[in-house]
Amino acid sequence: MALTNQIDGLNKKTTKTIIVSAIVLMGWSCFSAITAAGPWSAFFITFLLYIFFWCYALYFKNPLLLRLTIIATIAGILELVTDFYLVETINSLNYPQNEMMLWASPAYMPFAWSNVLVQLSFIGVLLTNRLGVLKASIILCIAGGMYIPIYEHLANDAGWWNYNPDTTMIFNAPLYVIVCEALISLSLPAIMNYSEHHKLLKSIVLGILLGFWILLSAYIAVSFFL
């Protein structure tokens, strides 16, 4: 089914760009895992993609990608609270020593979250445009939950982070992280659909709401699946 182009900025060129960015991120994660590259590789790919998304949105004047990047950036910054909860409160998540840190997280972490949220959110918009919000939410929820075990496994082998051994795991992915990511993905189509019909400034509010939902999702997942 062809794109309807009802959403300004949703086009084949940008769709291909987002897909390629996801392939690049996964490919780099595989390389980092195979070589046990360590934190420097996470810094490199994170800031490369983050700067690219901003440049693409501004250069091509793509309002959709601009909204997604603003929302994802704010949510990524607020995710520092969630990381603190996982690292310092429940002592489940561990980062390598001697990294450049923001609070309890590596300095790249808010932007790494932003990159993944941009990619998932764009896919959510694409699915919503074709299938509607409800079906898009269900599909993205399942996809988000399935994607995480792969990424967590690669991150562990790359030396980016790991979890305490007493955590309930599926391969190298904690069960609660899979549930948390599924809940986050579930919310994205509705949030992004709402952002389409409002002024750009509303993206700030939606980014804050998404950041709080990430924390709430983590708390729910930890409470039932840790």
TrEMBL record:
UniProt superkingdom: Bacteria
- Protein name from the UniProt record: DUF6989 domain-containing protein
Record has Membrane as a keyword = yes
Domain DUF6989 per the UniProt entry, residue ranges:
80-222
Keywords associated with the record: Membrane, Transmembrane, Transmembrane helix
Q: Which InterPro entries match?
A: DUF6989
Q: Which residues form a coiled coil?
A: none
Annotated membrane-spanning segments are 17-34, 40-59, 64-87, 107-126, 133-150, 170-192, 204-225
Supply the Pfam families for this chain: DUF6989
